[in-house]
Design a protein that fits this description.
elongated; mainly alpha; AGR2 protein; single chain; AGR/TXD; Glutaredoxin; 173 residues; endoplasmic reticulum
Length: 173
């Protein structure tokens, strides 16, 4: 009789620990599913409702065939400057509206095209390319040491540079 109660006690303990282990597993998944990791869209947070191209080659093709300028944003996910600029860019209604007139590409890696780093490889860096596939090295930010860099405080300059890139189209092409 003593052995039977030990066995049933042992089984009860096993059952309880199994149930607890399952609950622990559930708790962990609850916490991880509470914040769903959204699928990484091509926007990478720069404007989810905008249409972004996947590759530099696709972007060039689209710019040429649509006769729209291409805007390339070089950035890194772990760069605080990139993150700060992205937040301001994504929340700026006028920029988001104007961006619809561009072929858009944001890159977290460098391309082999040296024209995209006319003054070095740094982030964040924003370049414009016209439909004749010319990098517009004349559309710059306000830093002489990083010509294509923009800080969150330069968002209105970026906006006017976007307007400039669109105006150039009308006058030159």
């Amino acid at each position: 009789a003593m052995e039977k109660s030990y066995v049933s006690m042992f089984l009860l303990l096993v059952a309880i620990s199994c149930a607890l282990a399952k609950d622990m597993g559930k708790k962990e998944t609850k916490e991880t599913t509470a914040k769903p990791k959204l699928p990484q869209t091509l926007s990478r947070g720069w404007g989810d409702q905008l249409i972004w191209t996947q590759t530099y080659e696709e972007a060039l093709f689209r710019a040429k065939h649509s006769q729209k300028p291409l805007m390339i944003i070089h950035h890194l996910d772990d760069c605080p400057h990139s993150q700060a600029l992205k937040k301001v860019f994504a929340e700026h209604k006028d920029i988001q509206k104007l961006a619809e007139k561009f072929i858009l590409l944001n890159l977290v890696y460098e391309t082999t095209d040296k024209n995209l780093s006319p003054d070095g490889q740094y982030v964040p860096r924003i370049l414009f390319i016209d439909p004749s596939l010319t990098v517009r090295a004349d559309i710059t930010g306000r830093y002489s040491n990083r010509l294509y860099a923009y800080e969150p405080s330069d968002i209105s300059l970026l906006y006017s540079n976007m307007q400039k890139a669109l105006k150039l189209l009308k006058t030159e092409l």
